[in-house]
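[step 3/7] fold_predict: job queued, chain A
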Amino acid sequence: CTARADDAFGPAITGSCRQGFDFTLLFEQSFLQIAPCAILILLVPIRAAQLRKYNVK
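[step 4/7] structure written:
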């Protein structure tokens, strides 16, 4: 496979690369790495605010 095939955004790599279906590197980095981190960064302040309301015993 060429590097150009992995630069495509679509989830599936085109052509006969890697004997069938495989995620492109750009898709893997975007959705399987960056998206979960971004969601976590957005949710941490909300959870911290919720925990701040509770008294420590």
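[step 5/7] annotate
The longest helix spans residues 25-52.
The chain has a mean pLDDT of 81.
exit 0
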